[in-house]
Amino acid sequence: MIFKRLAVGAFLCPILNKRFILCSSSSCFHSLSPGTAVSERIGDLPSKEVASSFKDWFRSRNDVLLDHIFEILSSQADDSVSRKSAELALSRLGLRLSEEFVLKVLHHGEDVLSCLKFFDWAGRQPGYHHTRATFNAIFKILSRAKLMSVMIDFLQTYTNQRYMHKVRFYDTLVMGYAVAGKPEIALQLFGRMRFIGVDLDSFAYHVLLNALVEENLFDVVEIVAKQIKMRGFENQITSGIMVKNFVKQNKLEEAEAFIRGLVSNGGAVDENVVCIVVDAFCKQNKFEEAGRLMNEFQEVGKFSMEHIYSIWIRDLVQAGKVDVAMEFLHSKKIAEGYVPDLFRYNMLICRLLRENRLEEVCDLLMEMKEGKISPDKVTMNAALCFFCKAGMVDVALDFYNSRKEFGLSPNSLAYNYLINTLCGDGSVDEAYRVLKNSIERGYFPGTKTFSILADALCREGKLDKMKELFVVALERNVVPSDALYDKFISALCRANRVEDGYLIHGELHRLNKVATRKTYLHLISGFNKSSRGDIATRLLIEMQESGHTPSRSLYRSVIRCLCDTDHPENQFLKLLEMQLSHPEPIIRDYNFFIDGAGHAKQPDLARKVFEMMVRSGVEPNLSSEILMLQSYLKSERISDALNFFGDLCKRRKASRKLYHTMIAGLCKANKPDIALELLWEMKEKGLVPSLQCYEELVKSLSSNKNYDIVVKIIDDLEKSGRHVSSFIGNILLLHSLRSRELYEAWVRSRDVLGDASLSGSLTLGELVGAFSGRIRVSGNIENLEEVIGQCFPPDLYTYNMLLRRLSMNETMDYAYEVFNRIYEKGYEPNRWTYDILVHGLFKHGRTNEAKRLLNEMLQKGFDPTDCTRQLI
Ligand SMILES: *[C@@H]1O[C@H](CO)[C@@H](O)[C@H](O)[C@H]1NC(C)=O
Ligand SMILES: *[C@@H]1O[C@H](CO)[C@@H](O)[C@H](O)[C@H]1NC(C)=O
Ligand SMILES: *[C@@H]1O[C@H](CO)[C@@H](O)[C@H](O)[C@H]1NC(C)=O
Predict the structure, then answer these.
(1) Residue 165 pLDDT greater than 70, yes or no
(2) pLDDT (average), residues 170-177
(3) Which residue of 206, 506, 793, 836 has the fewest C-beta atoms within 10 A of its own C-beta?
(4) Ligand 2 atom with the shortest distance to the CA of 588
């Protein structure tokens, strides 16, 4: 149906219609996110033509002059020079002032001040005098703006104004006070003037009567109404006010009967009177009664229905019954050729737009265009929003860019839509330009738009623009969301602009915005990267004040960063002091500092902290001692570590954990001999070394090719009834692949079968032999895998090693099988898995397969090793 109606106007804008027909049915309009379905379907249809057909329509608007007047009025600063220049500009327009024109201007005005200025200027123009109607209009504007005091000032001083004497003095005063909501004063004045023998005119009587109704002074209403009647001033306006009088007292039936009476005895009544009661029913949600009444009065044939329909539609829309309103509109259009006025169109369009009913919006806009209904600002803004929502960014932008041509001044909603749409379309620079423009015009985007734009700017790395946006936002006390704040800071840090990030952070901090933990992390690691330990320190303390608890690794980073400066000790102690002065100093803080200093390879600082701890009466716990030991060991200060360890052992019974720390640390420091001594020592003391001690020892001893001891240690491990771990097993296999020495050490230590074409089980030593190529293993791969499984639990690393072993055989067939087994076992092949296989395939000349696998490897994001690269 919609498209049929559209087709009627097809000659006006074939392109636009084609577009909408192209994306027929609902799918592409509802749920529109800008730049999706519609623009894709539209493809390369020239949007210029759509734009120009709308532009022609916009140019036809007839309130441009009024806009222009208000532009002049609102742009002037409040000093005499600019006031003069504005008045000059107004004079140059060559306006023909009349009551009608002034009323039109006042009606069009948005801000009270401009209206007042115009009123004042007009009153001083030769040949024009304000009338009661214009006075009433300005009074109404003032009272609507709740500027009663301005108005009363106005009334009190107005006798001094030359031009005021042209209108009747008392009439104006009575009207003024009546409209100002001071009917008592108005009545007093009325009484006084009657006393001195003057009377109000018809207009002023009605203003007074209306004010009395507004203020619920129903008794006085009756009296004044009688006066009006006596003077023969009674007309439709009187009837309207009387109906309102009933409505105000919630006497809708009486109001209805009153109108019926007027109709039947030929009284003064018009559609405006009917509107009041229809509106009253609607406002009480009695739409059925209102509808019935509307039909009844239509049948009278005396009223022009447009105005009544307009009120009906307005009330329906306001009550959220848009569907009913649209249905009504269509039926009246067909049956009676009803055409809504501009305001009703605008209202419907805006509401439908809000509900994303874009097809209907489009229909209405087309109808207006076809019906040559002159659009106003609201219509143009709605059209702009519509094109944004429909994803027709080009058209929207074209309108925007040529806005001066037809006097379009976007409102905040239109700005928001345009900015959102441009961001969604990837035109972030355009969006930013529009934003700057909107700010110049005094609009700042809504929160959602702000974050969409900020998001896009961050994403595209347009950080200067982002910074500018942030500054403007902060100037307006718009505080960004946590997520946005964090995103911006992290983008700045990524771009190595952590100082800028810090400035922004400072600004927000000043506004009592608490940064998230994540934001602090970004900033601290930014300053860590640029070696600004001082600022990192400040942030570390500040984040705790903001209620976040830094992790141990954050302390490590900050302390390391501090220790890279010229005076590490001063800085370090300062931070410690700040930290300790903070909440009550706890062991944890001290421990973090010992740990941090240890990681920064500053064991002397660590020791200082340890001593301070003791001095200040905080008993170091086992963790403190372990961290202290680790600090020495990390810096390879072996004798210090041993001394400290010795002291600890003297003080209390050395624990397994301390031994463990020493053994692991010594191994890492490549001192396996001393570590080994400690291992025997702890065993002598009846302590059971942890598996990790054995692992570290095997690793360190193997690197030193001290294979005889390795075998001895493994013996010891097995004797204590424990199993070889995957870690140890893998080290053994690795070293077997490299040389035969490990196997030889094994043979020296005990009996190993020289030749095993065995299919059954192998000992660990035999497995080493097999990997060293000293023992031939026949049978299939499952066999070998099983053998490994009997010695230790294989992991991915083990499979890789097995793969390497099998790649040595030129057939390579088993290698593939292992590759598949890896998946079967639930592992994901890693870089090494691929590298080994690719390497083997190239080496054996199976180039095609190698290339295929290499491709797969690259696709998974793994780089081949240099060694493999040489073969490619
Ligand atoms: C601080 O820098 C070091 C190296 O310079 C790095 O290892 C560490 O992860 C960084 N810490 C943070 C929190 O970024
Ligand atoms: C030492 O004290 C810290 C802080 O209270 C605690 O986290 C840690 O677990 C303690 N260490 C031991 C071994 O008790
Ligand atoms: C490679 O494996 C095949 C099949 O098991 C075997 O016959 C051949 O001897 C092996 N070659 C080497 C060099 O190990």
Answers:
(1) no
(2) 81
(3) 506
(4) 4
Distance 587 CA to ligand 2 centre (A): 7
DSSP state for residue 162 in the 8-state scheme:
G
Contacting residues for 868 by C-beta, under 8 A, at least 6 apart = 835, 838, 839, 842
Task: Say how far apart CA 525 and CA 263 lie, in whole Å.
Answer: 84
Among 748, 753, 750, which residue's Cα sits nearest to residue 767? Answer: 753
Distance 575 CA to ligand 1 centre (A): 18
What's the mean pLDDT in 27-44? Answer: 36
Is the CB of 809 within 6 Å of ligand 3? Answer: yes
Residue 76's pLDDT band (cuts 50, 70, 90): low
Position 30 scores a pLDDT of 34
Question: Which one has a higher pLDDT value, 814 or 39?
Answer: 814
Place of tokens 């037809």: 406
Residues 6 or more apart in contact with residue 326 via CB below 8 angstroms? 348, 352, 360
**Helix residue ranges per DSSP H, 26-93:** 37-42, 47-59, 64-75, 80-92
CA distances from 777 to 76, 144, 760, 783, 787 (A): 99, 101, 10, 9, 11
pLDDT tens readout for residues 458-479: 888 899 999 888 888 888 878 7
CA nearest ligand 1 atom 13, residue: 525
Q: Indicate whether 762 pLDDT > 80.
A: no
690, amino acid identity: S
For residues 318 and 310, is the Cβ–Cβ distance under 8 A?
Answer: no
CA 39, 40, 42 angle in degrees (round to 5)?
A: 60
Classify 795-872 by CATH class.
mainly alpha
Atom 11 (ligand 2) nearest CA: 623
Please give the average per-residue pLDDT across 792-797, as a whole number.
94
- Distance, C-alpha 81 to centroid of its chain: 45
**What predicted TM-score, i.e. pTM, was given to this entire model?**
0.63
* Eight-class DSSP state of 779: S
Residue 156 pLDDT: 66
Longest dimension (CA), the chain: 141
Determine the average pLDDT of the residues in 55-76.
80
| Terminal Cα-to-Cα distance of the chain (whole angstroms) | 67
Q: List every span in the chain annotated with CATH 1.25.40.10.
A: 795-872
434-466 in b/e form (b: 16+ CB < 10 A) is bbebbbeeebbbbeebbbbbbbbbbeeebbebb
Contact of 237 with 274, CB cutoff 8 Å: no
Query: Residue 658: CA atoms inside 13 Å, Cβ hemisphere, count?
Result: 22
The per-residue DSSP string of 373-396 comes to PPP-HHHHHHHHHHHHHTT-HHHH
Mean of pLDDT values over 740-747 = 91
Q: Would you mind telling me the total number of residues written for the chain in this entry?
A: 872
Q: In 3D, which of 547, 467, 560 has the Cα closest to residue 505?
A: 467
* Closest C-alpha to 780, from 741, 821, 746: 821
- Quickly state the pLDDT bin for 555 (edges 50, 70, 90): very high
Q: Is 528 in the pocket of ligand 1 (CB under 6 A)?
A: yes
What string of DSSP letters covers 455-482? HHHHHTT-HHHHHHHHHHHHHTT-PPPH
195: closest CA among 214, 170, 176? 170
pLDDT of residue 40: 37
Give the side-chain half-sphere CA count within 13 A for 584.
Answer: 2
Q: Above pLDDT 70, what percent of the chain?
A: 89
Query: Residue 643 C-alpha to ligand 1 middle, in angstroms?
Result: 32
